[in-house]
Amino acid sequence: MAFAVSVGALLSITACAGAGGNARVEPAEASGDGVLRVGLILDNTGDNAFLNAPQLAAAKLAIQDMNAAGGHKGRPVELLPVHPDQDTARQAKDLAAAKADVVVGPTDSSHADAAVDTLSHARIPLISPANTAAGLSGLASGGYYFRTAAADVAQGPVLAKLAKDAGAASISVLYQEGAYGKDLSAAVTDAAKKSGLTVLPGSGFKAGAAGEAARSAGKARPDAVVLIAREGAQGALAELNNAGLSGSRIILSDGAFARYGSGLAPRALEGARAIVPGRLPTAGFQARLLAVDPALKDVSYAAETYDAVTLAGLAAARAQDDAGRSIAANLIPVSGGTPHSGAGTPATPCLSYKECLGGLAGGPDINYDGESGPVAFDSNGDITTAVFSVYTFRADNNPSLSGRETAGHSG
Question: Is residue 176 within 8 Å of 230, Cβ to Cβ?
Fold first, then answer.
């Protein structure tokens, strides 16, 4: 789970043992009942409950588009009832009992295990639109786990590139302690060294206690500082400013992205840059989401959810079967991906369910690029091309969109 996107602003780990084998690459015999049923796990509660609405609207929109193009083998695709009041494990069990063929969700990376534990045993693929924890690439799912969101560590090369593009020859990396900070710090350091940057000593810190780490970075006098943090970001930025590191020398990971305003000293972030996973949804896509849910106030993870549902439909179409095992076995091919690095050139991208169905009529190889951008699943069910929006902070310590970067990997 990463960053929340406002509609208004835009319009202006390892699981318990799952099923054996690897459903992503193993052939599957047709065993469906002829009706493609899509389930949706909405696991956001409390302050994050607003994230449920855009995912539900996107799933409904994707199914509307699929049914307008003929559905699955001439029959309507169905969206099963949602129960956001239940915990992740209960939702997964209920969706399996309701004969879901594929499930989209959850949002929170820490909830992936609970969903996979049930769904992989039932041979139902799970496609998360928002899980970003790096450790989930090795999730023991029997090949039934995929995600249309990039892993946190995909930011590493982009953060290093932003520093180098701005003329930095040296960087320090400050990170909030925990898996997110540790893993992403390693990715930034590796990418920076490979790009020729000098990586000066950096350090970890606990939320609310970044003073020593900031002072250490100040003494090292780097050209740029990459801050990797979440709830401890504002305190760390204040300490960096106190240590003489501010403004355009600061580069923020997605977890540290926020509208800081008067919460920091005047101009503390002027010229600083931050990245947010994904590209901004187009005005046209937002308008279509609002037609589904006129009360929608946010579009976070909507594009990734729409693409997850669409890819599942295309996988079923390629298999000519709606069973979960058939969908899992065909998600990589319809995404333009490959289970083996360097294996061939993907087909020309198709940009909608209807267009991609036409491609399947002419051959087995298609390459769906959707609302969230290219997908191209790899052997772990991860996307291999990650798109990031770049923001630059103004004198008021608030961000404005200033560009886009893409990072990719093979395998």
Answer: yes
